[in-house]
Amino acid sequence: VANEGGKHWTVNEVRALIRIWSEKNIQQQLEGTVRNKKIFEQVAARLQKFGIDRDWKQCRTKYKNLKHEYKSVKSAQDSGSTSKTMKFFNELDAILGHCTMEQASKSDNDESERPPEWTEAKSGKDSMG
């Protein structure tokens, strides 16, 4: 199957992508940003060293697809279904399994990370009418 990212990714190409993605510094960069073109340019450059010719867009698309597939398999498993599976689940689980937990708790704690004077100032204004 050819996707919009050009020719289909081989198992080795995906492995190489995941290997780079699993590095701590890459993960941290990816977690911390939405505009990640620069990161995927790095990833693409690293893949070139393995003889894998992919541009940053293809890398990003594949990354998004893998992440999406992983999440749908993971949520199927969480709901007790074992029928849904994917090729690189274990590799991705090693990367994303803990990330998703961290990110979930991060978003829960958003309120507490605000400086208290913000919330007080807001409620003060409100009570003045």
From TrEMBL:
Pfam families linked to this entry: Myb_DNA-bind_4
Residue ranges of the region described as Disordered: 101-129
Gene3D superfamilies, per the entry: Homeodomain-like (1.10.10.60)
Residues annotated as domain Myb/SANT-like DNA-binding: 7-95
Database matches in InterPro entries: Myb_DNA-bind_4 (IPR044822)
Annotated Basic and acidic residues bias: 105-129
UniProt cross-references to PANTHER family, sorted A to Z: HEAT SHOCK 70 KDA PROTEIN 14, MYB_SANT-LIKE DNA-BINDING DOMAIN-CONTAINING PROTEIN
Protein name in UniProt: ZSC29 protein
Lineage: Eukaryota, Metazoa, Chordata, Craniata, Vertebrata
